[in-house]
Amino acid sequence: MTDVIPVDVAIIGGGPAGCAVAISLAQSGRRVALLERTNYRTARVGETLPPAIQPLLRDLGVWEQFLADEHSAAPGLVVQWDYGQAYETDHIFNPYGCGWNLNRLKFDRTLYKAASALEGVFAFSEVSRLVCKRSSNRSNCAWLLTFTGNSKEFHTNSGRSPGRHLSLSARFVVGATGRVAPPSLPHSLKRVSVDNMVGVVGRLPPRTSPPPLECAEADDTRIWIESVRDGWWYSVPLPDGSLVAVYLTDADLVRAQGGARTAWQSSLAQAPRLKSRLNGIEVTGEVNMLPNNLRVVAADSYCRRRLASQDYLLVGDAACAWDPLSGQGVFRALTEGRMAARAIDGYMLRGDCGALKEYEGHLLKNFDTYLQERYEMYCRETRFPASPFWRRRRKAPAPIPV
Q1: Distant-in-sequence, close-in-space partners of 226: CB < 8 Å, separation ≥ 6
Q2: Band of pLDDT at residue 11, cut at 50, 70 and 90
Q3: Would you call 320 helix, strand, or coil by DSSP?
């Protein structure tokens, strides 16, 4: 017979948002289940964190381990947009020091380990066959979850239970599944999309020889953003000397250009600063300046119609996803995770939905502000009036229907 584990909150998704919720609820004395579908071994797209991440990571209890993980420093940002000079942001005077270029896989694994080590947290990885449905016995629990998963920490009456079938009863469920819709998502929570942007991600191997003396850009460790005719480029060096170069454009434009490989290469020819950064890097593939492997990842902006109810809440990209140009993905996930935990704890203490409504209102207000800032930023690029990519983004944003 399968044991049923009673918890206050079940969190579906063990990325930054889900882990932040789990850690924060455990710090408040809540009993939490954290469910992650992967084993934290497959590659994840990295990201840059601003200097202001330091107090947040301290609050989550992972700052010392974060430093030990040796993420590379991000001293600033260079933006080449429109006809003007490159805009540069330097972190040298920031009270928290530099930003950080993440090894995202290591970062997510650190958060998961920190959460699973806390009292009251039952953490499961490699979760599959998850079924999440409302309970008929609403007086004791609102949700029943069944799944198969692994956990080194959890023991049942029959001993350690890696890979066995498990059941949870939960008063509250958090959807923290990123851009993938959480299971049993109510129809009212379907998302409203703003665009159809994707990122074509290439990773170029380290140099085999030093760059030319006149090529200072090749050793610049800052993040570079550069606009081109049908989108823009994001590039950042990694600690091992390789370079991640991501071409951001719309999905239909990738198809119109003949696919990811052709779009990546043809757009690279329009990015002089990025090409100078590649000087001295040995690249491989059938075509010059093309890495062996390219990945296409979703990068569209959207917001769910409703973000919280009396027993269900969405957080991070499961709630709203922002343009990568904002540079707020992981930072926002951690911040909103802490906020979501406070709202859930407030709801459980007082039995009213005021804290949940306040959380939802805050996220929706932030998303409306983001849409306006996104519109203003894209309007600054005026070189490509006929480009569908830029023309679509020069339309004033409409309020998200909720």
Answers
A1: 79, 80, 81, 232, 233, 235, 271, 273, 274
A2: very high
A3: strand
Q: Write the CB contacts of 2 (distance below 8 Å, at least 6 apart in sequence).
A: 146, 165, 166, 167
Whether 372 is covered by a domain: the verdict is no
Q: Please write the tens of the pLDDT for every residue from 190-231.
A: 788 999 999 999 888 776 655 554 454 556 778 899 999 999
pLDDT for position 1: 44
* Tokens describing residue 32: 């939490």
CA distance 125 to 184: 20
Work out the average pLDDT over 306-315.
Answer: 90
Angle, CA 314 vertex, CA 173 and CA 4 arms, to 5°: 15
Query: How many Cα atoms sit within 13 Å of 269 on the Cβ side?
Result: 7
Residues 128 and 267 in one domain: no
Same domain assignment for residues 119 and 67: yes
As a whole number of angstroms, the distance between CA 124 and CA 166 comes to 10
pLDDT in tens, 122-133: 999 999 999 998
Is residue 378 within 8 Å of residue 397, measured between CB atoms? no
Query: In this structure, what are the phi and psi dihedrals at residue 344, rounded to the nearest 5 degrees?
Result: -65, -45
Q: Rounded CA gap, 324 and 328, in Å?
A: 7
The whole-model pTM stands at 0.89
The CATH number of residue 210's host domain is: 3.30.9.100
Same domain? For 212 and 266 the reply is: yes
Residue 178 and residue 58 share a domain: yes
User: Do residue 154 and residue 115 come from a single domain?
Assistant: yes
Give exposure, 157-171, as e/b (b: 16+ Cβ within 10 Å).
Answer: eeeebeeeebebbbb
Of the candidates 27, 33, 31, the one whose C-alpha atom is nearest the C-alpha of residue 12 is: 33
390 belongs to a structural domain: no
Q: What is the number of other CB atoms lying within 10 angstroms of the CB of residue 398?
A: 9
pLDDT at 77: 83
Domain coverage including residue 229: 200-298
